[in-house]
Amino acid sequence: MQFVEGRMNTYSRVLVAVMLALLLGAVMLIAHPGSAMAAGATPATELTVNINDGGTITTVHTYTLDEINALSVSQAVYYSSIDSMPAPVVTMAKGVTLNQLVADINAKYNANVTIGANTLESIKVYATDNYSSSYTYDYLYGATRYYYPSLVGTWDSANNKPGVGANANPAAVDPMLALSSYQKRNLTNLDPSQMDNANTFRFCFGLTANDVVNNTITNNKFGKYVNKIEIIKKSNASTSLSIKVNNGNPITVTAAQIDALNLNNTIRHYSYAKDNQMNYYTGLGASLAEILSKYASVNSSDIQIMTVKAGDYYRTFEDPQNELFSTRYYYPAVGDKAAVDTIIATAAAEVATDDAAKLDHAHTMRLMMGQSAIDERTNSWMVKWVNAIEITAASSSDKPSYAVVPADNAAYSIGQTADGIKTMTVNSGQAGFKYFDVAISTVAAHKGTETVVFAHWRNGVETELNATVADFDVVKNAKAGFNVLSGDIIKVYVVDNLSNAAESNPVLLQ
Fold first, then answer.
1. Where are the domain boundaries for CATH 2.60.40 in the chain?
2. CATH architecture of the domain covering 401-495
3. HSE of 253, CA atoms in CB hemisphere, 13 A
4. What is the DSSP string of 78-143?
5. Structure pTM?
6. Phi/psi of residue 181, nearest 5 degrees
7. Which of 153, 252, 267, 332 has the most C-beta neighbours closer than 10 Å?
8. What is the pLDDT of residues 44-63, one digit of tens each?
């Protein structure tokens, strides 16, 4: 490019104008998700349907364009989506819905496919330009999807998000493989004559109500040039699990046995943090600790390591006392929480609901636990399709344990209960404020701190407690004072932790 005395010559100005025009044209192609084809992309000329049943893939049928056209809906269907700008996008489409396609392969080719939470894991589409994308059952059908006719007209362009009234008058739509279609950002001219076969087959689906509220980008999942679809049957749901303790013989526990521990059909709610918001699960099942105690004869307090397995996925909990068996919570809202047990769910839903009819077996058995704090992201801990649990537990010889020896004192007599709890009984003629002193020695160490509890009993009734918290692997004695009468009894014992919480159950360490 040449400059003469600070000005462009005529040739240069023409060249710049041409370059700008080409650049603007390219920008327009990028900016609008319309029907223009990418270089090298080829519309599909047929559609192959495969079934994936537990890893075995079978081709059901390869449809010609004419065969798909014979199955197609008679009128154009409108779909709403949001693209990455973000901006509202409308797609006009005419083709075969996923439900219609499944009905046809069942009727003509005995495919034996049903679209349900317990039967369909996901679908995967493949395109002529090597694009592929997967869509789980929950993603496509977990919530009703809609076309929102007001999304474009009410769009808040200043903030690039759905505006007030965007969710008005929604129309439910089914997922579709479009034979002919037209897609454009901010489309208001809904003229079906604009549709063509340039993007055949285009996979289309609607927005959920939450998608609109959360301004969720979905347009990038509208795959085009689709020439193959794989329907993946659900085969991972388990109805029993194997429990092994210290590499012993496996113990099989069925869903029916788990349900037997939850005769009141108690529904439990769980929350987890993700993408700066709270998300929710609901489960119907039984306490993990109760399952292990009842069917595997293992006390949860003895568990040192636990591995929860599901097919080719597993999660190892190296601190199960804190991760699984400590007090954890469900957070229904900021500032509100409720303690929840860790459970194995035999029915579940990835939403918060009090309606047991909305729970299914799509992802069961499922490990579910609460949060220790409202911002804790526990989703990856809630293993689905659990089929095995492997446990390393402390044996009787290496369980944390401490010996308690009361100090000799003229004010009381030393004894112990039938279950080995040390006692100090106030002698006759003794009364008033007295100290009770004990020596603590380690039999098998406990990680962290312990609590020595002094319980004051009078006439068979516990009247008060005094507790001392320390690391008694280091500290070797504890002392407490009480106002006593002759005949009063002070019992002393060591536990892992003492709490007023109703759901807290201290573990005796002696």
1. 401-495
2. Sandwich (2.60)
3. 28
4. EEEEE-SSS-EEEEEEEEEEHHHHHHHHHHHH------STTTEEEEEEEETTS-EEEEEHHHHHSS
5. 0.48
6. -160, 165
7. 267
8. 999 999 999 877 899 999 99
